[in-house]
Design goal:
By secondary structure, this protein is mostly helical. It has one domain. The chain has three helices and no strands. The longest helix has 28 residues, at 33-60.
Length: 73
């Protein structure tokens, strides 16, 4: 597996996790329920992206997959 690809995927994963945290902070700070609903929807999309990235990383990086299996994930 190309390390450059895995590095890019992990950087993408970090970006998605940062986005989730940022949306959550905004949700917690905003009083407008309509805005909160929109931001929560976007945050949840980011969570799906995290799952997709983890799935492909597990497929491409056998040593990472071993760690997931060891932890029964």
């Amino acid at each position: 597996m190309d390390n450059k690809t895995l590095i890019a995927l992990r950087e993408d994963l970090v970006g998605e996790l940062d986005a989730i945290n940022l949306y959550q902070v905004h949700i917690d700070e905003i009083d407008d329920e309509e805005v909160k609903k929109v931001l929560a929807h976007i945050r949840d999309d980011e969570k799906e992206h995290v799952a997709e990235l983890v799935k492909i990383i597990r497929k491409l990086d056998s040593s990472q997959e071993e760690k997931f299996q060891k932890e029964e994930l």
